[in-house]
Amino acid sequence: MLKGRLGLETARFPHADRHGLLWLERGELCVVDGCLHFMRGSNSLTPQMDQIPHQSVSMILLGPGSSVTHDALRLLARHGTLMAAVGVDGVRTYTAPPLMPDRSDVARRQAELWGSPRRRVSVARHMYALRLGEILPHRDLDTLRGIEGSRVKVMYKLMADKHGIEWNGRHYDRANPMAADIPNQALNHAATAVQAAAAIAVQSLAALPPLGFIHEDSGQSFVLDIADLFREAVTLQIAFSAAKQVDKGAEDTVDRLVRRQAAQVFRKQQVIPSMIDKIKQVLRMEGDNGAGDDRDS
Known about the structure:
Layout: E1 21-24, E2 28-32, E3 35-40, E4 48-51, E5 59-62, E6 67-68, H1 70-78, E7 82-86, E8 93-95, H2 105-115, H3 117-132, H4 141-163, H5 182-204, H6 221-228, H7 231-247, H8 254-269, H9 271-282
Parallel strand pairs: 1-5, 2-6, 5-7
Antiparallel strand pairs: 2-3, 3-4, 7-8
Helix pairs in contact: 2-3, 3-4, 4-7, 5-6, 5-7, 5-8, 5-9, 7-8
């Protein structure tokens, strides 16, 4: 009389009504009796198994020490639940199956703003205002980039002085990244961690990574845009805190110290949820507030 689980096997809840992100690590994501489960301690006599409400979650972040079965991937795809393989506390992101999201409002809004030269500059100016604490009168992106670059140099110096770190400027050789001094190595690792968090935030909203408003050439341009919004509050804090630990004689390598520091900062400051909010803010998802004379006529 009642086929399946009251028809829930074919239900699909919109992401607007779901709870967002669910973090899982050190276990197996599998299907038992048609339901998604996460099993920990499978090699022990008393494994722990939790049922996962996959239809009410937008995205599952699968952390280290985890595996996923074919049936679990099939079930997630059927119900439009995203999954990303990430590092400890989302410090790195490795892959996310390209599932088709059930929402297009963010992507359409982003494409609309990006496709209009005036609106694109307006969004870029808004992002620079969030980073620099003031609205600059300039409308040329190269001029804005130059102003931001000079202020970032000052910011690096101030953060280094705050942490008691000797600072000789930003230097990075892509061909030999280990040739940089410890503060620059820490900055490289911290930037990678924050970009991973930004990638998770962008994926969770089904935004378009290539359509950046400040960055242009990378296929992850919008991810880089969002990561830069958190440079001072997150990236530099992580990097110089880790560099200070090295300076004090910590035995761990600088990349391990950065990952550990990033995990603490991400959790304490709720970095990924904050990035999701920032994406909605810069794309003006609540309306065209602030577009002003930058709108198309």
